[in-house]
Specification:
It is built from 19 helices and twelve strands. It has a five-stranded mixed beta sheet with strand order 1-2-8-5-3. The structure holds protoporphyrin IX containing FE.
């Protein structure tokens, strides 16, 4: 007890001294400031803040690559407004871990396969980071913002939409869209080469809407969604005005989002009625709603579903939740799939000997009859066409990086800890251009997937990410690209007008040919 009292007295005395010291310091500072003009006070405060900013930056940076000092206040904001591929590459090549600062945000970039995989598989430390505009457009209630167990649970309920059986159900609607658009391709570029980047964006919206909503959605509504989607992409800026004021980009984006959601919600209601009437599913909404109905029946009566297994009822989802989920799919798929389609048509036009091999495979799979409709068995046997798609995705990955946020201090290497609150970005370029896995990595060589050793390096295949947030639609995306280009090879010839920038990469959410891809289509003789 005695020693406790002594300790308390000593502590109280020390505290009293500290208070006295602090009061003296404040008084001295006050005297010092008194002799200064307001301008001097303001300038001194600013100088202190700027020095503190640099110290903070250096403390976070430690030994990793990056500027020796950060640009005051804005950091690398201006460079981030107009990103170039060459700028990104220089950053990735500067070190396995590098950093930038944008306003107050500290950003760590990982460029090696090992570090990128490590981040994507570290849900205890990181979670996906969506720009502020993303939350406004997709709505805060969207499932993509869930983390940890809640995310895993929600995702489980969506896996059934991408099974082999389900993918087969969506194919007829997809093929119908290819038929319609191929006619448009022929009409559009009859006279001369035209830029196809936007046209490919449009066909991908149409394929997505038909796959998600089947015939519940009209062609006019799909066209409107395609136009609206531009507004959604345009609103996705790194930094937006914080309020949704009328006639700003973000406001147009939110209006567009509302129209898309209204269409998807109405489709979900129609699908629910048709599935409740016991009809066959032919789109993703049908597949989801049918699974829910069957799971409920199983809970109530113990009936196995039509596939003979006991379905799991995660929970019942409302039309509004279903619509929001499909909005997230449209958001996740639209730019990436359009990017892949551009490069695919470009490379095949530039290398006719490879296109000939695709044609040979496609015709053989149709037993010599190019009019034969596709089914899942046929698509699965497209070995060479798959190699062409994979090689295109490898050489020109649509998604170059995925921003994550550090939930807590993250000791990513023995030497470096990513500070809590930083943005941390795994990147994919180096993994996908690794000399060992892909000799001559800048050469487009589909054979590396059939005869070469590319398939022996699954850890390098980061096109669709990895870990708990790995792309949900990857099988569907590859199947759609194979089916589309395979069918095009049967009915269309296309010529690419090469320009000096055809192989350069334009960053527009994803990667596109710098010259917007100038193509001319003509009908192919039977
Ligand atoms: C070539 C086309 C595509 C590419 C390159 C691509 C790539 C990616 C990447 C890199 C991620 C992040 C993975 C991670 O954080 O580890 C992702 C996530 C996602 N993708 Fe894709 N994607 C494509 C097409 C699609 C399609 C067609 C759909 C749906 C129909 C889709 C749905 C999603 C969803 C829902 C997520 C988030 C998953 C989650 O957070 O759990 N993607 N995608």
């Amino acid at each position: 007890m005695e020693s406790f009292n002594n300790f308390s007295t000593a502590t109280a005395t020390a505290s009293a001294f500290k208070v006295a010291e602090a009061s003296v310091a404040v008084a001295t500072l006050r005297e010092f400031v008194k002799g200064m003009s307001w301008w001097t006070v303001a300038a001194t405060s600013l100088a202190i803040l700027l020095v503190a900013e640099q110290i903070r930056y250096l403390n976070r940076k430690q030994g990793i690559a990056g500027r020796a000092w950060t640009i005051p206040i804005v950091g690398e904001f201006l460079a981030s407004m107009h990103p170039t591929f060459e700028g990104y590459l220089a950053k990735w090549e500067s070190g396995p871990l590098s950093c930038v600062s944008v306003f107050h945000k500290f950003v760590v970039i990982a460029s090696t396969q090992e570090l990128s995989r490590k981040i994507l598989n570290a849900p205890a430390y990181v979670q996906p980071c969506v720009v502020d505009a993303g939350k406004k457009i997709l709505k805060h209630t969207n499932w993509v913002f869930l983390d940890g167990k809640a995310h895993v649970e929600y995702r489980k309920g969506l896996n059934n939409l991408f099974t082999r059986k389900a993918l087969g159900v969506y194919l007829p609607a997809q093929e119908q869209v290819y038929d319609e658009y191929f006619k448009e391709f022929l009409a559009m570029s009859k006279e001369k080469h035209v830029p196809y980047m936007n046209i490919f964006r449009e066909i991908n919206v149409a394929v997505s809407c038909r796959t998600f909503c089947g015939d519940y959605i009209t062609s006019a509504a799909i066209k409107a969604i395609s136009d609206d989607y531009w507004r959604i992409t345009a609103a996705m800026e790194l930094v937006n005005f914080p309020l949704v004021l009328p006639y700003t980009k973000i406001w147009y984006g939110v209006q567009a989002r509302n129209r898309v959601l209204a269409e998807f919600e109405a489709s979900s209601a129609k699908s629910r009625a048709r599935m409740q009437a016991g009809e066959e599913p032919n789109c993703m909404m049908d597949a989801w709603i049918k699974e829910m109905i069957e799971a409920k029946a199983f809970q109530e009566k113990g009936d196995a579903n039509s596939a003979g297994h006991a379905p799991i009822l995660i929970r019942e989802f409302s039309d509004s939740e279903i619509a929001q989920t499909f909005l997230s799919f449209l958001f996740a798929s639209q730019d990436a799939t359009s990017s892949a389609m551009c490069w695919l048509f470009q490379y095949l036009a530039d290398r006719p000997e490879i296109l000939d091999k695709v044609r040979e495979e496609q015709l053989a799979l149709r037993d010599g009859d190019r009019n034969k409709r596709m089914d899942i068995d046929m698509v699965e046997k497209m070995t060479y066409t798959r190699a062409v798609v994979k090689e295109t995705l490898r050489l020109r990955p649509p998604v170059l990086m995925v921003p994550y946020a550090a939930k807590k201090d993250y000791p990513i290497t023995p030497e470096y800890t990513v500070p809590k609150g930083s943005m941390i970005i795994p990147t994919f370029w180096h993994a996908l251009h690794d000399e060992e896995a892909y000799p001559e990595p800048n050469h487009w060589n589909p054979e590396r997937w059939t005869e070469g050793k590319a398939e022996s390096f699954p850890r390098n295949w980061l096109v669709f990410g990895t870990g708990p947030h790995v792309c949900l639609g990857q099988q569907y995306a590859v199947m759609h690209l194979m089916a589309c280009v395979g069918k095009a090879s049967m009915f269309l010839d296309w010529d690419h007008l090469r320009t000096p920038t055809s192989d350069d990469i334009r960053i527009f959410a994803t990667t596109f040919p710098m010259d917007d891809l100038l193509l001319k289509f003509s009908e192919r003789a039977a």
